[in-house]
């Protein structure tokens, strides 16, 4: 965008801070899922985030979106972009290390490119992007193992849950583009409120949360999960894109899986297999290949 100053130290610090927060979501989910069921984790984080984002929206003089079409799109984003991936990731982490989950979720930008290529007329992938997608797919295959993919055991299904969650995030981001004319803060609050409205009854029916006895560690992890990667990250994302644009922001795709893997090793004592590092290298290389074209910046509205 014309008139934008080159990225400075504060811009990179904000980008790294956001990557650290998003990468930490896998750690927090792993801590919470020890004693809290996946649906209740998804419900709890959306309730906390919805409250924070609604307050942030109203405090800045914005309002929630209006109109049936807008709320229909918000419902779609909530279900596909929050309800499904939040639940799938938590379910997957019941049996899979947090660092490995972060690696698989690193394919998110590549899935977004693949879906955009298939579903839009103006975002077709060239040879470089196609090569990037294939490298990312190869990374997932290396991490899970061809043999396990053919067997489709419980652990393999958990890995595939992460891949489906990445596809959900990608699909949600494409739907979210149709809301580009609306207030970013208002839409974020609306999406999180609808997500909570779906997940809370689901938690009450499926998990009967009054029967759950979470540890203090799990409760704190769930609270932080709602406050940081689910709520605060939304506001930080907007700040970065407004300051430096979507192309600068896209560099975060290299950092999030690295932070997720590092947290798992340093704080949870996870020991990733050699295949994990090979998979991470393939996925990050795929992102590098796929960055042939700069993404279009979203509408700059708060």
TrEMBL record:
One of the Pfam families matching this protein, by short name: EamA
Compartment(s) of residence: Membrane
InterPro entries (alphabetical): AA-Vitamin_Transporters (IPR050638), EamA_dom (IPR000620), EmrE-like (IPR037185)
Domain of life of the organism encoding this protein: Bacteria
Transmembrane segments annotated in the record for this chain: 12-33, 39-58, 70-92, 98-119, 131-151, 187-206, 218-240, 252-268, 274-292
Domain EamA as annotated: residue spans: 13-144, 159-289
Membrane topology qualifier: Multi-pass membrane protein
Primary location: membrane
Keywords, comma-separated and alphabetical: Membrane, Transmembrane, Transmembrane helix
One GO cellular component term noted in the UniProt record for this chain: membrane
UniProt cross-references to PANTHER family, sorted A to Z: AMINO-ACID METABOLITE EFFLUX PUMP-RELATED, INNER MEMBRANE TRANSPORTER
Protein name: DMT family transporter
Highest classification ranks of the organism: Bacteria, Pseudomonadati, Pseudomonadota, Alphaproteobacteria, Rhodospirillales
